[in-house]
Amino acid sequence: MTDSVLHEAVGNVSEIIKAEVFVHELPVRRVRRHGSGDVAGGVRNVFVRLEAACGATGWGEAAPWPVFTGTAEANFSALKHYLLPAILGGHAMEAPSLLADMDRRLVGHPEAKAAIDSALLDLAGQQLGAPAWMSLGGCYNRQLPLSVSLADPEVEADIDLVQRLLSEGVRIFKIKTGFLEHKDELIRLEQLVDAAGANSSVRVDYNQGLPCFDARRKLVDLDSFGFTFIEQPFAGRYLEQLAELRDHLKTPILADEAVFSLSDLHRTVGLRAADAISIKIMKCGGPRAGAQLAAAAEGAGLSTYGGDMFETAIAHAAGAHMICATKGFDLGCEFYHSTYHLERDLQSEPFWVKDGYVQVPDRPGLGIHVDEDRMRGEALASCVVN
Ligand SMILES: [Mg+2]
């Protein structure tokens, strides 16, 4: 699209002239235990800043998890060498075309692509003076029910956390499982369900922690708890086995590690392997791809949940705008890391959690205020692409 056509269509836009990338190690408050291993000490995320000729900027974040999607090091390299050079000279208003070009240039790396999609949404919003949810089609719901995951190796610590969360209005809890002997797991589940109380929605997530071999024998014991869903009991590649398991359980099955893309969803639906999916911008490559997944899931009769990785407010914001603009997402969202898990964020104000809901703002772009001094001053590595 030419500059003159863009100017006629949307007024004051200008091309992207510079991109910067920053890698950060973000300390976490406590050890978290999952079926796929511990997260302790800190998480390593990558941040993108785009700058247009008019001076407007846009921020995005790649939050990889090495056992799930990829690594910060690979995403830093993908952004620096393959993806960002390709969007210099482009316009934020051409995002669908720029994102399609990225898929042609580089396989995989959905977290890096999510960072760029988020930064393009932020930049477009700054240039238009409109919130990112406008660029995604308008507002469906600006108050998103928050789910907080319980993953402390010490159950007493999680019981204390549940009490705090209940007092703050949170009514959705997801218990991470798959790391104890089954009989001990059942005792822990009972303790946490009791703490959450009868008015909460409680779910469990195995993060692929069970072998297929005896998953059915263990999971039928969970039916009596009345959990909202059981998430990803074993490795995502075993979709046929997931379909077979689903036939033997009353509790709905939610697929997470099994569904990154539209084609993954197509296969999951074809095998009748799940009742719901978790949509994460870090799996599918950004808010625009996530909204497409939600529409496809709804068409297949599946419910959707707004998942995330170990993200700061920047990626939380991109995911929240996606959900705000999209029908579906009837199982809540889990943008809680900034508020309850990270020692400190790179945003200069608290993330928008209030009374158990994420409250999506109407400020331009993603609506975030990045602490640029800390972003630049505390980065482990950085580069400029221009
Ligand atoms: Mg999960």
How many distinct folded domains? 2
CATH top level class name of the largest domain: Alpha Beta
Q: In angstroms, what is the radius of gyration?
A: 20 Å
Number of helices: 15
| Fraction of residues in helix | 25-40%
Written description of the protein model:
The chain is of the alpha/beta class. The protein has two domains: 3-129 and 371-385, Enolase-like, domain 1 (2-Layer Sandwich), CATH 3.30.390.10; 135-359, TIM Barrel, CATH 3.20.20. It contains 15 helices and 16 strands. It has a seven-stranded parallel β-sheet. The chain has a four-stranded antiparallel β-sheet with strand order 5-4-1-16. It is globular and about 60 Å long. The mean pLDDT is 95. The site of magnesium ion (MG) has 6 residues, from loops.
